[in-house]
Design a protein that fits this description.
The protein is mainly α and 307 residues long. It is 81% helix and 0% strand. The longest helix is centred in the middle third of the chain and has 44 residues.
């Protein structure tokens, strides 16, 4: 690879983007196969499930829980396969080994179990957070909206404190999401799953937490805009008809979404290697053993996947 293992630790926001695109364009056929085989079907399945959930939406908690569980069961296999395939591809490219689509698909059965366990654990955390999120939002609305009989200005101590709480709460939510997503990448490369992968994720991401927040913000807004536009068209809120202009636009967005998913997974994997490079450097610098060097330590962390 163009970047050496030591150089990866110095990648910043734009450096990680540049490295991610360089990896994708170095093997366009491979990543196209992965996108068409794993990521695009996942997107189609998710959209169909989302449409059914929107059509048969219910305010009852038990129905919401059932829909969440069905969503998990529907996207479990394609999600774990798509993430695992992309992370495996990037890892093999960094190990300078000959990587083919057949080799990657042959690796997936070996790592699918631990990745699925981490994904299930991540889903449970996300589900609990969503329930808490609904309660917090309701409380914040009551706190932030001033009573007409007692307040004439929206700028007061009560609202300022409420806004601070909201921003802190959102920051915690983003942090949890970063840890969850990063843990899945770790489960693919290292022999860790569930809580161990989460702890590893929390400790490893520290050196790039600012970059990870910015990445989450960029991709989150992109996914929000694309998903919102697609939802408006299929829900009929754009006028109830689909002319050729809207058809071309939606087709473009449907193709763009899997590509963004691919880039997001590659970016997450590059961040992992950047953090791992920093961790290995610190380990080499702090050890008193002359037998340990950067290269041997670096390869050892990839043994669970590349052996």
């Amino acid at each position: 690879m163009e970047k050496t293992q030591q150089e990866l630790q110095f990648l910043g926001f734009f450096g990680i983007f540049k490295e991610s695109f360089r990896i994708i364009f170095s093997k366009p056929k491979l990543f196209t196969q992965i996108t068409l085989t794993f990521i695009l079907p996942l997107f189609i399945i998710f959209r169909l499930h989302h449409y059914l959930a929107y059509t048969f939406a219910s305010k009852r908690l038990i129905h919401s829980i059932l829909w969440e569980l069905s969503c998990y069961l529907v996207i479990l296999i394609p999600s774990t396969l798509s993430i695992s395939a992309v992370v495996c591809a990037v890892t093999f490219l960094y190990t300078a080994k000959d990587v083919t689509f057949k080799k990657i698909t042959g690796m997936l059965p070996k790592i699918w179990k631990r990745v699925s366990i981490t994904f299930a654990f991540s889903f449970a955390i996300n589900f609990c957070y969503q329930i808490l999120d609904e309660r917090v939002r309701t409380s914040m609305v009551r706190l932030l909206v001033p009573l007409q009989d007692h307040a004439t200005s929206i700028i007061n101590a009560k609202n300022i404190i409420g806004l601070i709480i909201v921003y802190l709460y959102l920051a915690v939510g983003v942090y949890i999401s970063i840890i969850r997503r990063f843990a899945t990448v770790i489960s693919v490369i290292e022999d860790l799953s569930a809580i161990k992968a989460m702890i590893k994720s929390k400790n490893l991401i520290k050196c790039k937490i600012g970059v990870a927040f910015f990445m989450y913000f960029v991709f989150g807004n992109c996914f929000l805009v694309i998903g919102g536009r697609i939802n408006r068209v299929f829900s009929g809120s754009d006028g109830g008809h689909l002319d050729w202009r809207n058809g071309v636009g939606i087709s473009f967005l449907i193709l763009l979404k899997p590509i963004l998913d691919l880039v997001a997974i590659v970016v997450g994997t590059v961040i992992y290697f950047s953090c791992k490079s920093h961790e290995v450097t610190m380990k080499v610098l702090t050890t008193q053993s002359h037998q340990m060097n950067f290269k041997s330590t670096w390869w050892s962390v990839l043994d669970p996947l590349t052996e």
